[in-house]
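Readers of this paper often ask what the protein records in our data store actually look like. Below, we set out a record of this kind in full and without editing:
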Amino acid sequence: MQRVRADYEIWTQQTIVQAIKKLRQSVGSEHYKGYFEKASVFETLQGEYGNYAYCVETGTLWLCTADGVWINTTIFTPVQQTPKSLIIPFQDEEQGSIGNSFAYSAGDHVHPISSFVKGKLDELYEIKLNKTEIPNRLPNPEYLSITVMGSTIEHITRS
């Protein structure tokens, strides 16, 4: 039953989008009527075929039909769309935090190396390789081991 409903909703939305495109083509231009606070405004609003407006209460686009009746298209307004985030991720040592975000990730960010990991790499260089400075690039050996949390040994191998 859910599959049928999902297919119907997709079909309905595609039909609405196609109808909007046809309306815009037949009229020749878009006729923007405004951005209204309440949906009840559309009951008395005069409109022509192809007019459209946005509603704050529903957060959707409303379209005027050939009969002069305003219909809710259920297409979100541009304000309701989630923006892409360009925020650099937080670095908070060993503890993560969930936090609140009102934007989706751009997907092209790289998390900075935490001081905990940097400290462990410094230990590795001092103990195993007798070096005091960490280079700009990590080495690419066949096999490295590092002690994590005092007793557990983690092996790093090249794949």
